[in-house]
């Protein structure tokens, strides 16, 4: 990239960086969450949401558990205004939820905002103006004092309009483009606004420090937040809020480090929707906490339902690898991952574990509404015996012997490789049934009778290459007797018979499955399976399947 010198390190470190936040290694309690889906999320959509869509999304946010929801920029458009009026007039705002509205520091916009708020029991009125060097120079063409004056005059107007309007109003101020602002100036402008609002324990003020555009690595932002937290006036009556955007892909890290550095509140969106690369994804932040054992106080136990509604009303798509919510984020296609997951799951079951330690899965997919059967082990040509065996056991109840898993694993991989596609669980089962189960040519079982007098003796009726034959054999067990009858009468050779059986389903209609492995004269093991209501018949079928497969393979 030959133009790197076009860019400079355009971020502002505070005059002091104590980095106390570095001593902490996790976030020990949920912050105050504020959803800005209906404002920042909405203002960045190709087609902003309709009134009905906003109402539906608002209800979802309430259901998830947000207690603060920025519902829009009521002075922006008729839909925004009508949406707020609808929430108020149709009494859609639960008592424990506070709505928030955004306004520029311009009188006609503030006036319209308060008009839209009439009848609201409570609301946060969020005032912003840009404070960055770039915006001061290029957009506002104003000095620092003049920029402070925009903020202070707006703050005074909020006092005035709030006093003239019924309702319980809290105030929020954002030095927009905070990360492009000199920290001393950001502090001065916030303190000037706080001097107008004079927060008290009963009337706290929110100071929001947005990463309007991300310009630095997360530790720089953490130092900026720590500096503000340590130096803001009225700190005990100020709620420090963060609003990170994701331009450098660091919005989650910015938020987490900012919380360690002393912030109390997070503004973000579901799935990180928002301007450009988006806002911070609150689902990721919340579930990051959850997977550290901390309750995020938001309910993400049904992410598929949340995803469906979000995709429908925003017309956005949740990326397949979006943390926690993407279609593929719990999926393991590759053999060694599948093997470790299958063993980890078994370990959990056997040890009755309380804590979650399954390899490759940072969180139990069930906790967010995903299902092991279809979301975790997925089969393609990269898969292995561990995963394929696990799938057969979990989905269909077949507990194949370890060596047979390997054989079946290669059969399944080969089909996937040749078709060049993922195989669904039913297709995997289909391969098993077609390749291994009750294979009945050239030998087909017709009837059998055993009697025991010392050795076990068998009278066997079979079809061999279409011809009915009666065979007799004896051995030290039933399967041994059948095997000897075949070997002695049909000159078919093999050794080392391996056998396993189990019931297939619970209950009266239960079937049994038997698995048999035999070693061919050239040392290869060939497997077969038999399924029957009767376990003896299942085991003979399994043996015949193995022999028939050996004969076919030549
Ligand atoms: C980082 C963020 O996401 S901030 C939120 C951004 N969201 C939005 O802008 C969506 C909603 N906005 C809108 O619908 C419109 O911008 C409105 C209705 C608010 C205002 O519309 P208009 O006045 O027609 O246009 P516009 O926003 O371009 O106004 C720009 C003027 O406002 C000034 N301005 C911009 N922001 C602010 C502010 N926060 N406080 C005071 N003045 C401001 C600009 O300096 C400019 O002044 P000028 O007329 O002297 O050049
Ligand atoms: C209004 C402010 C908080 C904002 O949306 C931003 O800075 O991104």
From TrEMBL:
List residues of the Pyruvate carboxyltransferase domain. 31-304
Chain residue ranges for the region called Regulatory domain: 439-554
Report residues binding Mg(2+): 40, 243, 245, 279
Q: Which UniProt keywords apply?
A: Amino-acid biosynthesis, Branched-chain amino acid biosynthesis, Cytoplasm, Leucine biosynthesis, Magnesium, Metal-binding, Transferase
Fetch the PANTHER family from UniProt: 2-ISOPROPYLMALATE SYNTHASE, PTHR46911
What family, per the record?
A: Belongs to the alpha-IPM synthase/homocitrate synthase family. LeuA type 2 subfamily.
Task: Output this protein's name.
Answer: 2-isopropylmalate synthase
